[in-house]
Amino acid sequence: MVETPRPKRTFRRPSVIPGFGISFGYTLTCLGLIVLLPLAGLVVKASGLGLSGIWEVATDPRVASALRISFGVSALAALVASAFGFLVAWVLTRYRFPGRKLVDAAVDLPFALPTAVAGIALASLYAPDGLVGAPLAKLGLQVAYTPVGIFIAMVFIGLPFAVRTVQPLIAEIDREIEEASATLGATRLATLTRVVLPPLIPAVLTGFALAFARGVGEYGSIIFIAGNLPYVSEIAPLLIVIKLSEFDYGGAAAIATIMLGISFLTLLAINLIQAWSRRRFGYV
Amino acid sequence: MLHDLSLDVRAGELIGLLGPSGSGKTTLLRIIAGLDAPDRGRILFGDDDATGLAVQERAVGFVFQHYALFKHMSVADNIAYGLNARRRADRPAKAEIKRRVGDLLDLIRLSGFGDRYPSQLSGGQRQRVALARALAVEPRVLLLDEPFGALDAQVRKDLRRWLREIHDRTGQTTIFVTHDQDEALELSDRVAVLDRGRLEQVGTPDEVQEHPASATVMKFLGDSVEVAAIAEGGRVLVRGRATPVVAPAGIIGPVRLYVRPWQLQLAEPEAAHLSGTVRSSYRTQGRQRIEVVDAEGRILAVEDSDGVRYDAGHPVGLRITGGHVFG
């Protein structure tokens, strides 16, 4: 028997498909130029303030409150968008009804609409004299110009992400596993919670992460409905714009860097949970 | 599509539903399981009417062609699923479930695989897990839908033998669906032949082979040649020459005679019932198989054991030594 030489440890796995070098280099270059460079510029700008300067910005009560609103409401909105989006995706894939294609197309509208248009539409709808706002006002509920308004805008723009990430997986569910579960005596509810839903969890998490990220970064649709009261309904991106208009570029970059850090950590955490759930639910 | 049919499955029996695709065999199986509802008719388990029962209440074990295992559960969890799904009052204790899963893993010869996931198993192993999962709930009847259809030939054969062993050991009433004649004939206590939604014949493998009830059954159970013949005086004549085939009582005149390859023998053209020229001849598993083309261009397969090789184009006569007559 001939001893085969131990393969050199390289980055690259042996493959018959050529072009690893060129595609890897191209990918890195694009990622660097388009994504990393601007972010690096941001961090460089913020570092002009020094660590203590950034800390000072972060602990400023108005900034801290804006960050809390941005991330807190985003998380809540992403949660609701995920649950609601899951239902929409389920109904769209599992049932056939007239107008299904139309509803399916309408799901993407929040993607396509200029965010300001969405914001104005939502604001006029939920204003105290608006179509939805007026009856709600009678019940003593004010939506527009409060954090609830921010929440509604974020659910609106986050919904398509939640729907589109789980939809293909719901469509792929094998009817036979549901039948198998039924023949084994499981009730419909048990079949859903133990057989159908668990494999969808990674996709639901992806949808949640995307909706959350979109919510954190959203500006246009929120400022119209939020009312932008400092300490109450002011979001961090708006604060950045305010700082910019006051020519406080350092302060704006500092808030942006803090947001970047929190977002990155959150998304990383979601990704880790996702990797774990993938393993847990048998996507080996 | 199923037409009216009545099939009586005996307790402890292994019965094969055999038929070409589209014959309704899977539909029949799914109706028994409660996965599909019949337009009319009844399903009885023993003396109990199961027609109105939901799938969950029928206590059947169903094994799908493509396994339908729960991918996100380990092998042990898959097998325990039916037991865990029971109402608390009927659910065995944890330790009891564990013991039963262990026994079933032994039965399917996968002890030590309990912690693996289905994606880490081969097709044959997955189907064994699916079988264990169905057996775990101690079903009244085990239903297998083309259980070996997705597996390669060697694994199929092994699993076939193994399923027969399991059946002999457990005495579990089993109905399985297949379109493979060999599989049905090897495995079943009785075979039910279906064609286009009709039940053509039910009988032991020997019965259906020796006394096929119709031309459809005859054709479906293996190669055969259709020969125009005349029934006269209790015998069947081909081209005016008597054959050993006995005509069924009461049938006189033109009939269709079906002949298997091993019921044809090479003969001198003067004494032959059929004639033609050799198209090809080859050896398969100890027998000589000769394909003969007759005057109409039909290919007649002959199985002979005399071992003589024939060149293509050689004129030969064929003698009929047996066959089945349908009016």
Most extensive interface: A-B, 22 and 30 residues
- Ranges of chain B where pLDDT stays below 50 over 5 or more residues in a row are none
Percentage of residues in helical conformation of chain B: 25-40%
Number of strands of chain A: 0
Strand content of chain A: under 5%
Corresponding CATH superfamily of chain A? MetI-like
CATH architecture descriptor text of chain A:
Orthogonal Bundle
The CATH topology of chain A is MetI-like fold
- Regarding quaternary structure, what we see is heterodimer
Strand order of the largest sheet of chain B: 4-5-6-1-7-8
Give the uncertain stretches of chain A in residue-range form. Answer: none
Structure class of chain B: alpha+beta
In N-to-C order, the SSE pattern of chain B is: EHEEHEHHHEHEHEEHHEEEEEEEEEE
Describe what this molecule looks like in 3D.
The complex is a heterodimer of chains A (284) and B (327). Chain A is mainly α and 284 residues long. Chain A has one domain (51-281): Orthogonal Bundle (MetI-like fold). In chain A, 74% of the residues lie in helices and 0% in strands. Chain A is built from 14 helices and no strands. Chain A has helices at residues 20-47, 50-59, 61-94, 100-106, 109-112, 115-126, 133-138, 147-172, 175-183, 188-196, 201-217, 220-226, 236-245, 249-280. In chain A, helix 1 (20-47) crosses helix 14 (249-280), helix 6 (115-126) crosses helix 8 and helix 13 runs antiparallel to helix 14. The longest helix of chain A is centred in the first third of the chain and has 34 residues, at 61-94. The relative contact order of chain A is 0.14. The model of chain A has no long low-confidence stretch (mean pLDDT 89). By secondary structure, chain B is an alpha+beta fold. Chain B contains 9 helices and 18 strands. Chain B has helices at residues 25-33, 55-58, 75-84, 94-107, 123-136, 153-170, 181-187, 205-210, 215-220; strands at residues 14-18, 44-45, 48-49, 60-63, 141-145, 174-178, 190-195, 198-203, 225-232, 235-238, 241-246, 253-259, 264-267, 274-284, 287-294, 299-304, 315-320, 324-326. In chain B, the strands form 4 sheets. Chain B has a 6-stranded mixed β-sheet, sandwiched between helices. A 5-stranded antiparallel β-sheet of chain B has the order 11-10-9-12-18. In chain B, helix 3 packs parallel to helix 5 (123-136). The longest helix of chain B has 18 residues, at 153-170. Chain B is elongated, with a radius of gyration of 25 Å. Chains A and B meet through helix 9 and helix 10 of A and helix 2, strand 4 and helix 5 of B.
